[in-house]
Predict the 3D structure of the following.
Amino acid sequence: MSEHKSTKSIESRPPKACGWMAEFTNEHDLLDAARKVRDAGYTKTDAFTPFPVHGIDHALGIKPTILPFIVLCAGLTGLCTALVMQFWMNGVDYKYIISGKPFGITPASIPVSFELTILFSAFTSVFGMLALNGLPKFSNPIFTNPKFDRATNDRFFLYVDSTDKYYNRDSVRELLSSVHPTSLDEVMEDNSSVHMPKAIWLGALLLVLAGLIPAAIVLNMRASDSDLPRWHVFFDMDFQPKKKPQQSTTIFADGRAMRPAVPGTISRGQLEEQDPFYLGHDPLKMSLADYRKAVFVSATDQDPADATKPAEEAKPAAQDAAAAPAASAPVNPPAVVGDGGTAPKYAWVDKLPIEVTEEHMQIGKTKYETYCSSCHGYSGFGDGLVAKRAASLLQDTWTPPTSLHADRVQKQPVGQIFHTISKGQGKMASYASSLSAKERWAVVLYVKALQRSRNANIEDVPVEQRSSLTPSVSGASESTGATVK
Ligand code: HEC
């Protein structure tokens, strides 16, 4: 602060009086004085103490703050904002099943709702407190009196402001002297220079400039075409020694990061042996040669010849098999194995081992939508969101999911589809760890229903329900026997 300037302004205009300040040595005197001042009807008053004094609000007649009520309203606003936002995003704008959760408001919405409630409340508490207290305020006239410095140490002050509607200079002085303060002073206006010291301006400017640095770094990163890796603050967080599902690896010969079960091992409680219910085929009805091949192929989950080849060579072979699936025989593991022989002939289960009930259909639908629709699409055409996204990114390593309405898949026995879900097929992974055997059969049931829905004719509709169909549809399929597409 410039000494010269402030001296000049004080000289040019005499400071105005702002009120009276009484000083006390203990809180009991202060409380007595505060009660007297309150009873005389003054409301523009304030007390300053080195420590919190109980009952001072009451003694000064200060009403309880309305801040808690404002914070409650803000919290409720936050809660509603979170619920409406989540309902809109997940229930209306972007309806997508994530981990089988239903649309709209679910228990999974609780964390976000909780966080927004707290966020809105916290901001309102801080800024509401500042606003209600008239802060930030850079100076208070009471600071002009050097005695006031002891307010943070061992003195208690009572202040009556001149803006009070009953304020009268002499009567307030009389009232305050009647309570025997240690000192009684008239508080004078602080008319020192109102110009902010240069150092503060400079500091603020430096802070703003420093605040721009992160934004500048981000902008530079977006525009940079440097080959050097970006600057990672937490290197081991950005690059963890782990593999994500569907990623490739050079560690294993088949290049897959998702590992099949170790050959010849069975997880505890999963010894399902020879039961067609768990296999999708009946091993006891296979020839010994086929059985051997099947056990070998499914145990290592790959072409035995590929295992000895480097990963680069094995890859194109797998892609070929996926690219021309229609040409290969309708069998599950790669059409040509090991010694150049054919794939094993499975004795597929051709009759669903679970009952066709509404309940099983519902399980199948839920599980299909959770685990399969992301790739195969809700209707099974292979147009799920993951597939669409991969196609839009033009990833040449991506094998498009097979349409479940492809002729070849339509003709597959139920056991073979079950086997595909259980063991995986080509580029598709196994879902045996996510779905129990019964759930996998329910998914097969649902896939079959999906397939049939694309090739339905009027005979598929129960007689009593045919009349509920619109005449044009039932008429067309009845007369031509054409399938409803
Ligand atoms: C991550 C994407 C993805 C998911 C999820 C997925 N699949 Fe697949 N599916 C594929 C791909 C890719 C293929 C083609 C595999 C190949 O030929 O290499 C395929 C092929 C198939 C086939 C045809 C197999 C054959 O004989 O050619 C069936 C049937 C099938 N999937 C059913 C399912 C079912 C049922 C589910 C849900 C439990 C499911 N898929 C989940 C990607 C996926």
About this structure: The two ends are 85 Å apart (CA to CA). The pocket of heme C is lined by residues 322, 325, 371-372, 374-376, 386, 399, 401-402, 404, 409, 417, 420-421, 425-428, 431, 443, 447 (CB under 6 Å). The mean pLDDT is 82.
